């Protein structure tokens, strides 16, 4: 993209908000076969799994604004935080390396899965400096060690990263206007740190799209909530208004959040989530994950089945589908020995097969 649609709609923002290009516009299309199976001819997907050719998912949209902000402020390294298998930390490591930043990541516990082992080796492959914390907290010592660092909050969900999803909504608006998709009655998306939902909620108001966004909570209640999303929306709007007097007053309603598909623990594989992953693979050959998008898809399937909803419904796919095997194939299980000692306990048993 040459410049964000957000800057085209609000030209004043261009001088004040830093941005650099990472993503390309993502497709929207009908999920014919899955829709058929569920008894609807109106099921759609936004392919944010293909936001970039290096690594897809929702993170690159946020990183366009975050890395640009770090660069404009002359900050380095970029420090961020996430679970042991964090997609956000991987995306930050990949794009940080591409853009010439040093990246340090603070990783906290989550259930050990094959994906977690792979991610830990990939962080190292992309040269991130890794630090372990049992529970979520930014290591103050680390921040002191790097006084010129740029800290990206978990999931990239601050008033800067969220702009990526305000912008994404204008992309959707454009696709509606071009007739690529009808106005969705509901948009389903995964709710983690809240930035994706907050951005879309602001975006649909600014772009005037008559739709309802539903966040499917996939992390603990203590770390995400409607109140948090509201706070993120307020902070982001305040930031936008500071730079453009064209941003209108917006009534912020309490976000609609579904809690029932979380499964009680971050990263835990649930029966419904796994089934949804399998259905999406079987009918559409699209890969979802069991932590975020599988649970979200399960909530959407449940809604369609229970409500027999035949109105347009959009599944916003936030998971990366870019094949990382070119990198994974270069990894050896034994590479874990060069990770910081704190991470060795996650490699007592080999959970993943290479070349697979
Ligand atoms: C695949 C995937 N989907 C959705 C989310 C949630 O997005 P957010 O943190 O903006 O709520 C994440 C966040 O880590 C993610 O990795």
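^ Assign residues to that structure.
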């Amino acid at each position: 993209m040459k410049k964000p649609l957000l800057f085209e709609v609000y030209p004043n923002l261009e001088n004040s908000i830093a941005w650099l290009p990472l993503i390309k516009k993502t497709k929207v299309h009908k999920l014919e076969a899955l829709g058929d199976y569920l008894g609807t001819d109106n099921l759609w997907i936004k392919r944010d799994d293909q936001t970039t050719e290096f690594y897809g998912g929702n993170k690159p949209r946020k990183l366009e604004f975050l890395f640009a902000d770090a660069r404009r402020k002359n900050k380095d390294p970029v420090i961020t935080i996430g679970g042991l298998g964090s997609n956000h930390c991987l995306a930050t490591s990949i794009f940080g390396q591409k853009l010439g930043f040093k990246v340090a990541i603070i990783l906290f516990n989550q259930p050990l899965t094959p994906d977690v082992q792979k991610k830990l080796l990939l962080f190292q492959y992309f040269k991130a400096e890794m630090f372990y914390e049992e529970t979520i907290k930014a290591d103050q010592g680390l921040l002191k060690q790097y006084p010129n660092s740029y800290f990206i909050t978990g999931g990239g969900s601050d008033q800067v990263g969220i702009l990526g999803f305000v912008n994404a909504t204008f992309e959707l608006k454009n696709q509606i206007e071009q007739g690529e998709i009808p106005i969705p009655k509901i948009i389903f998306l995964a709710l983690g740190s809240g930035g994706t939902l907050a951005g879309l909620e602001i975006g649909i108001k600014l772009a005037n799209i008559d739709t309802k966004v539903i966040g499917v909570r996939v992390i603990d209640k203590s770390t995400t909530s409607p109140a948090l999303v509201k706070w993120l929306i307020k902070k982001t709007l305040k930031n936008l208004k500071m730079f453009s007097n064209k941003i209108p007053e917006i009534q912020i309603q309490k976000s609609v959040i579904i809690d029932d598909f979380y499964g009680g623990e971050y990263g835990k594989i649930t029966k419904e989530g796994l089934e949804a992953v399998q259905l999406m693979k079987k009918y559409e050959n699209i890969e979802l994950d069991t932590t975020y998008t599988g649970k979200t898809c399960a909530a959407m399937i449940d809604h369609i089945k229970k409500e027999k909803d035949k109105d347009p419904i959009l599944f916003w796919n936030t998971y990366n589908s870019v094949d990382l095997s070119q990198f994974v194939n270069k990894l050896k299980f034994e590479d874990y020995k060069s990770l910081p000692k704190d991470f060795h306990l996650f490699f007592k048993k080999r959970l993943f097969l290479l070349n697979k």
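The longest strand covers residues 78-83.
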